[in-house]
Amino acid sequence: MRARHAAEGARRAREFEAFVAGAGGRLLHAATLLTAEAPDDNPRARRLLTLVLAHTYACWGRLHGEDPYNHARQHLATRFAHGAWHQYGTLTRTRPTGALARLTPQERLILVLRLYEGVAEEQVAALLGLPSERVHTICDRATATLLHPPRKRPAAVVGAKAATS
Amino acid sequence: MNRSEREAAVRQIMERAVPRMPPELHADVVRRGSRMLRRRTLARRLLWLLLFAAVVGFTVWAVTVQPWVEPPSETTPPLTDW
Questions:
Q1: Considering its fold, how many domains does chain A have in total?
Q2: Distance between CA B32 and CA A133 in Å, rounded?
Q3: Which residues are the signal sequence here (chain A) (predicted)?
Q4: Band of the pLDDT at A27, cuts 50, 70, 90?
Q5: How many residue pairs bridge chain A and chain B with CB atoms within 8 Å of each other?
Q6: What is the ipTM of this complex?
């Protein structure tokens, strides 16, 4: 009984390590986009990701065939949504460094879920408790803000896009 | 510029810089995760213990007090001589 328990634990640890090695990079990128930090200096995104993956680790035995990546992504989104206003809001406003630094936390969250992660609009709406028209509107507005910024750097963004498309 | 072009452009902006994975991430995650599991196990055990103690306490009280037995009447005086 004890030996079987230990073998089960070892198998779970291996599976989890493979999951972190495979999905960690993408999740860290998403977390860095959410916190709007520079890619090489992202302490808050790392902390967010560590907490999210620790939660996934604790739930690993109870997933019952559910996609662990999906679980981690949902937890990342809800944890960011709950912590964003009182924790990250003021800090990011003073240090806008990342690619999405111009957007508000909610716009970043919806943009990352919709376009970077490719989650369907209805699922994002259900996850955040918003009507899906609202998600659609916020996504459009965030896209417009990102592609046509109010003042600075409009030429660089449009130029880079025209060269590649 | 239509919708799919705009979305592609935004995707490109987001995928431009990829952060490096910190090497100590997995160990950190496992440490925190197992602490979370230990705490959950402890909390569950404590709750079961509390439930058990409550059941035992209630049983002992019920057996000693026997609240279902009708108490002897105290208002009517006993009838002795008539």
A1: 1
A2: 38
A3: none
A4: very high
A5: 93
A6: 0.73
